Amino acid sequence: MIVYKFGGASVKDAAAFRNIFQILSALSSAEKPLVVVSAMGKTTNALEEVFQLAHQGLSYTETLQNSQRYHLNILQELFPQQDAPVYEAVGKQFQELQDILTNVSPDDFDRQYDQVVSMGELLSSLILHHFLQAQGLANLWLDSRQYIRTDSTWREGKVDWEWTEAQMHAHLPAILEQQPVITQGFIAGTEQGATTTLGREGSDFSAAIFAYCLQAQSLTIWKDVPGLLNADPKLFEETIRYEEIAYQEAIEMAYYGASIIHPKTVQPLAKRCIPLYVKSFLHPQEPGTVIWNCQHSRIAPSFILKQNQCLLSFHTKDFGFISEENLSAIFQALSQYRLKINMMQNSAISFSVCTDYDAQRVPRLIEALTPEFVVLYNSPLHLYTIKNYDQESLEKIATGKEVLLEQRSRQTYQLVCRPAHAAR
Ligand SMILES: Nc1ncnc2c1ncn2[C@@H]1O[C@H](COP(=O)(O)OP(=O)(O)O)[C@@H](O)[C@H]1O
Ligand SMILES: N[C@@H](CC(=O)OP(=O)(O)O)C(=O)O
To answer: Which stretches are annotated as coiled coil (predicted)?
Structure first.
């Protein structure tokens, strides 16, 4: 069996839903895919905003109504018959969302966040399920919270692989013999039945979990670009497409911030040698990129830009050398406040870390470490990474930048700089 994943851009309007129907119709009747879908367009951002307002006790009605109107407009284009069952299903989902929002309390931000933000995928998958049915493509809507189990690390649930694999094995092969399955990316469930999420942009990872556990022939993620390029075309000019690329290369690109693939996606696929196709939903006949167990010699340099970075420097208060105890305290605090290290460097009496700037977590980290260190920080900054760099690519990135931190290994070059100039 095969797994297809359609992200937010693939379901952003009515035409996009029709396009998915075309892509699925092109499969032979013997191929019954498991389809993982993300929330429509920027719905997750809208739900985050609604939740933040509700959590602060502020009015969220307008933002919620905008999102509701966006969904309803698409529904009206896709289902001209006002008594189509999808209207009731979507109405119920919004009612559930409203009930959760009414009961939001000031504590427990992360747990409540998951209950709200998960609604985007439930809505989009319901709409896709009903739309395909209406087009004559019978399919089963599946609640992925009953198949992917995580612990209760809210907003980034840790997958219980053993349970998840057993659960999928027990039920899904028989279902997929009969018909395609439509399910949600990004969301999962705890043993107690609460909803968790897998981290922003986590639908690619959900699709990889399904592909791994079901030992799929392949996973295809459908995107608005021709494949995996050597840079984000929204940020860099003159990109090139990789026809094929090794798992390790793709894992590293995602790790350094190539946002086309969620960083956790490739590893489970690599473990079971499942090829990952990155294809354009605009040109489904085009080959795209295949990420698999291939051998290649040096490939074209890839450029990755991470924006909204923060550079923190921890200085000992007594001019003493940075010790292992100091490093341990810093790492512990980073782990406690769930801040990931994107780059780090130490010197005699200070230690620097580049991390994503999170308006809630970074100030808490600084507060926690201030008794022990003099903490300096700079933001917002840019972090550039060039994989497989050469002289020409280095010059392209470094020239004219105010560099705050720089590092290079044999294959990888990184620099942290101020975003004063356009990122090109
Ligand atoms: N190396 C890259 N190659 C291609 N696209 C990239 C790359 N890095 C970042 N992107 C960006 O990823 C986007 C597609 O991924 P994403 O927005 O996550 O899609 P979706 O949410 O629809 O799954 C592209 O529009 C492009 O701007
Ligand atoms: N909807 C979620 C999960 C996701 O992966 O979305 P997308 O496939 O559109 O990146 C988010 O925006 O974080």
So the answer is: none
**pLDDT digit string, tens, across residues 226-244:** 999 999 999 999 999 999 9
Are 188 and 240 within 8 A, CB to CB? Answer: no
CA nearest to 54, candidates 103, 120, 2: 103
Summarised one tens digit per residue, pLDDT across range 86-134 is: 999 999 999 999 999 999 999 899 999 999 999 999 999 999 999 999 9
The domain ranges of the chain are 2-223, 302-417
Q: In what order do the strands lie in the sheet with 373-387?
A: 343-346, 350-356, 302-316, 373-387, 412-417, 403-408
Distance 293 CA to ligand 2 centre (A): 27
Distance 300 CA to ligand 2 centre (A): 28
Q: 205: Cβ below 6 Å to ligand 2? A: no
CA distance 323 to 330: 11
What is the CATH topology of the domain spanning 302-417? VC0802-like (3.30.2130)
Q: Are 354 and 310 contacting, i.e. CB atoms less than 8 angstroms apart?
A: yes
User: Residue 367 carries which side chain, given as an amino acid letter?
Assistant: E
pTM, rounded to two decimals: 0.93
Is the ipTM higher than 0.90? The answer is: yes
Ligand 1 contact, 200 CB (< 6 A) = no
Q: Which residues make Cβ contacts (< 8 Å) with residue 187, sequence separation at least 6?
A: 114, 118, 121, 122, 144, 145, 148, 195, 196, 197, 198, 206
